[in-house]
């Protein structure tokens, strides 16, 4: 597997573009991804019961497992907008389908931004001709930028690998910086591939990859209304069709997971107001479920996150978070490591110098926390960030 430049336009037959149509005050805010051939398609959506209109519409359009275009806007979520918002989404889809000469059911739609405001549909419709005319094999970077809301940098990734004699490409763009919490994290992510693959295999690979990546990140414990991941596979790589079993499937899933992980990591590194990137490992839990419980409790704890922001190696807050997580363990057998240094051994503090720990571990940009529950063989890793004053400022005055 090889890392490549570019994002969603790296795979064969994919084109993209973005324009400014006035949804946001400045910068591009409307983007389009297009496959020259109808593609197998799958999606994963937020578990939030309050869902944006685009998710409702796109879920319906994904019923047949085929899509050819994704139209996305930033600056407005089109959520809690009632029947009018639903009608707006369908008007946009119909306009895209007509301009591209494709089926309206093969258009997916996504939105991110402020909740409770109707989209400026006339602005969007008037921009679609231009959007289509600008479609380019180098347009991925424009889409990545157009998706940004509170993001401070755009997010792309791509890889290539071999299936037999054929080179297969996978590319992605994503946005996300705040309201990040699993099932799904608050984000939009669009993945493209030229792999030939069955719908069943594509759905399975996406679900498994998302569970191991986007569902293993958290910034603030909040979950958005518009989170989704879409994947399109147009088959133009010409490889033998991948099914749900075998070496080719495992190779494809590994490559897809690597791209999704790259996007998930970039989201955490761009977390709103963050100064630290934190990896939380829980090992030897009773099972994977318990490991995830403990890891999430640490990663979402405001006390742990603010201690790390303040560069205070207060491991007691980590132990307390594990204790309330619901994971099965005995405090007398708990081990905790900070940056590889053992601070708690079998429930007893070690003699590590706190000032030295602060200097060698907590002054760094990347911090690793590991907890060993000594209860079984379950493991989990969650990526998170610290909680800063800037995060409060950003979200106290959030507008686009």
Brief sketch in words of this structure:
The protein has 400 residues and is of the alpha+beta class.
Describe the overall structure.
This protein is of the alpha+beta class and 400 residues long. It has two domains: 2-269, L-amino peptidase D-ALA esterase/amidase; 277-396, Roll (Ubiquitin-like (UB roll)). Helices cover 33% and strands 27% of the residues. It has helices at 53-61, 82-100, 121-133, 140-146, 199-212, 247-269, 288-300, 302-309, 315-323, 354-362, 389-396, and strands at 2-3, 14-19, 30-45, 66-76, 107-114, 155-163, 166-175, 188-193, 228-233, 277-285, 335-338, 341-345, 348-349, 366-372, 378-385. Strands 1, 2, 3, 4, 5, 6, 7, 8 and 9 form a nine-stranded mixed beta sheet that branches. It has a six-stranded mixed beta sheet with strand order 13-12-11-14-10-15. A hairpin with a 2-residue loop joins β11 and β12. α7 packs across α9 (315-323). It is globular.
